[in-house]
Amino acid sequence: MALFEIRDTCAPESFQDFMKTLGHRTSRNFDHFYWDDNYKTFYVYEGKTIIAYGFLRKTDHPRRQHVCVLGMVVSDSHQGKGVGTLLGHHMINWARGKYKKIALGVYSDNYRGVSFYTKLGFENEGLLEKEEYDDWRQDYRDITQMALFL
């Protein structure tokens, strides 16, 4: 297995190069993520190349400061190789002591994603039916809400 390094910064051009490695479906699922000051970012490198990206976003509401939202994506060429597990554990460990709950939403028909997060220790909290409209499918998609309590 190749050696991977997790960093919390990257050059914008490196991130853009990473985005180009994502398949059409993955990039469409990823297009709603963005950067702002509420995000703690994580980048997995193989050599000088970003192969995965994750974030923990703190919530804005004063009564929800104990919750952060997790998002992550692994390049198509590195899925199924342990990169996501490495990144997921790193992000969870980083959040310990800072948050009490990590929340996320995953498309309900993304069975690999639901299974992946379950293996990381996340629990199903509920279903948001027809939560997003998918132009590509021309249909609505459900989202499974999941959480990990720290």
Highest-level CATH class? Alpha Beta
What's the tally of helices? 4
Silhouette = globular
What is the fold-level CATH name, i.e. the topology?
A: Aminopeptidase
Query: How much helicity do the residues have?
Result: 25-40%
Question: Strand arrangement, largest sheet?
Answer: 1-2-3-4-5-7-6
* N-to-C CA distance: 30 Å
Order of helices and strands: EHHEEEHEHEE
Percentage beta strand: 35-45%
Kindly report the name of the CATH homologous superfamily.
Gcn5-related N-acetyltransferase (GNAT)
Q: Give the overall pLDDT as a whole number.
A: 89
Give the low-pLDDT segments.
Answer: none
Number of strands: 7
Q: What's the CATH architecture?
A: 3-Layer(aba) Sandwich
Query: Main beta sheet: strand number and arrangement?
Result: 7 strands, mixed
The overall number of domains is 1
